[in-house]
Amino acid sequence: MCEMETSFHWDPGRRAFCGKYNSQLQPTNDSVMKDERSLSLWPFRLAHGTTTLGFIFQGGVIAAADTRASAGGLVACPAVHKITPIHSHLVVTSSGSGADCMLWERILIREIRLYQLRHGHRLSIRATAKLLSSMLHPFKGTEMCVALTLCGWDNGPKLIYVCSDGARLQGDVFSVGSGSPYAYGVLDRELRWSLSKGEAISLAREAVFRATHRDAYSGNNVDLFHITAQGWSQRKREDLKEEYYRDKEKKGKKKNDKLK
């Protein structure tokens, strides 16, 4: 799997990706030397992180993510969209390099639309994941960092993780990004098939909140999508500060009850 907190080697002018690899996708000696010189001029190594998650329950599929885009110790943007609708029954959560993720989401939307126009029906989610994996595999070993989780519905709920090295995994729960260990801690404790829609939404929001509380690269807001046989629906974006104060108030009430 692709480690989302892997350091990103920044090159002035954003020429690193284009100039570093020849037609066989192998680094040239000149480009490697240039990269080393540029890195020596940059004061710190840029790292990026995020918290995204998706899980299946009896009511469909839940996808959730924070909204903070980071560049090392900097908050580049507090309100990005890390969940992108691909079509009426499929959304993807993205983690990794922001530019790479946006590019491949657009490519995926284009390919699915072209397939539908050519064949008269939509590509299945499993086939979509296989197509994406095949397109990403040639870039294995490069600095491209993309991790997309396909959350959708066709003949039942589907949850498939695809990474920039071409890895493709299907499961019932995935969390990706630097905040994922903290999110998994909440999901492993509370997740079960019999959750109601309200309980599932509350669990996803809680998992993202806990991750952002501990992970400096995640934060600000939480976006949440619910996908069923009728398609996806988006919950209104929530500020995680409100979740923090709700949690603090809840703990205060418990403490008062114990004192009584």
Automatic annotation (TrEMBL):
GO CC terms in record: cytoplasm; nucleus; proteasome core complex
Primary location class: cytoplasm
Coiled-coil parts of chain: none
GO molecular function terms noted in the UniProt entry: threonine-type endopeptidase activity
BP-aspect Gene Ontology terms: proteolysis involved in protein catabolic process
Family, as annotated: Belongs to the peptidase T1B family.
Function, in words: The proteasome is a multicatalytic proteinase complex which is characterized by its ability to cleave peptides with Arg, Phe, Tyr, Leu, and Glu adjacent to the leaving group at neutral or slightly basic pH. The proteasome has an ATP-dependent proteolytic activity. This subunit is involved in antigen processing to generate class I binding peptides. Component of the proteasome, a multicatalytic proteinase complex which is characterized by its ability to cleave peptides with Arg, Phe, Tyr, Leu, and Glu adjacent to the leaving group at neutral or slightly basic pH. The proteasome has an ATP-dependent proteolytic activity.
Protein name as it appears in the record: Proteasome subunit beta
Gene: PSMB11
